[in-house]
Amino acid sequence: DAMVIQNPRYQVTQFGKPVTLSCSQTLNHNVMYWYQQKSSQAPKLLFHYYDKDFNNEADTPDNFQSRRPNTSFCFLDIRSPGLGDAAMYLCATSPKVSRGRSEQYFGPGTRLTVT
Amino acid sequence: TQLLEQSPQFLSIQEGENLTVYCNSSSVFSSLQWYRQEPGEGPVLLVTVVTGGEVKKLKRLTFQFGDARKDSSLHITAAQPGDTGLYLCAGAPGSARQLTFGSGTQLTVLP
């Protein structure tokens, strides 16, 4: 089945220790997104790639970086995690979207704990 | 200010009851989507509504898009414990590509 895969599902890191979360997709979608979600809140968009074109949200901290080496894979790098970065990180994909319509397909998420 | 306001924020009901969740905005949306998210999982797309006044049914779930395409509702008939989850409405306002999510409705259906 075509899907969005995130690894690992659970990640524990130490305060200040760099961590990388990964996402892969078999949907062959052009657009990939990274969201941060805290408990019982809506997902908050960090950035997205439209093909190789990187789009950062204005309020995404510099501590968060992303790489998309090819269509299938996208990585989220947190350079120096703080306690406030503990959250669920969601990857999503979307086919080439027409403006005003953007159905997204989410992975299962990675739960990040910072100790 | 939240672009998409959802109400209620929390809802706890008994199995078999009916419920409605509302998603409202002052902006016009070309389409709105509804997602359900279970604990520890990613959101799953339930439906997209596109045309003003449109009604879509998915088993016991009925989705409606307002005539002016500024609001939407989700009605669940005879709720079951398996309906428990976070319900999110989302849309791309105007000509935007990125989704804006509503604040979410946490639904708990008690057996």
Structural commentary:
- The complex is a heterodimer of chains A (115) and B (111).
- Chain A is mostly beta strands.
- Chain A is 0% helix and 50% strand.
- Chain A has no helices and eleven strands.
- In chain A, the strands form two sheets. In chain A, strands 2, 4, 5, 6, 9, 10 and 11 form a seven-stranded mixed sheet that branches.
- In chain A, β5 and β6 (53-56) form a beta hairpin.
- The radius of gyration of chain A is 13 Å and the shape is globular.
- In chain A, 33% of the residues are buried.
- Chain B contains no helices and eleven strands.
- Chain B has strands spanning 5-7, 10-14, 19-24, 29-37, 44-49, 55-58, 61-65, 71-76, 85-93, 100-101, 105-110.
- Chain B is globular, with a radius of gyration of 13 Å.
- At the A-B interface, β5 and β10 of A face β4, β5 and β9 of B.
Q: What can be said about this structure in brief?
A:
The complex is a heterodimer of chains A (115) and B (111). With 115 residues, chain A is mainly beta.
The total count of strands of chain A amounts to 11
Element pattern of chain A in H and E: EEEEEEEEEEE
On the 0-100 scale, what is the average pLDDT of chain A?
92
Strand-residue proportion of chain A: over 45%
Helix content of chain A: under 10%
Distance between the termini of chain B: 36 Å
State the helicity of chain B in percent bands. Answer: under 10%
How would the global form of chain B be characterised?
globular
Structural class of chain A: mainly beta
Contiguous uncertain segments of 5+ residues of chain B: none
Overall morphology of chain A: globular
Number of helices of chain B: 0
Q: How many strands in all of chain B?
A: 11
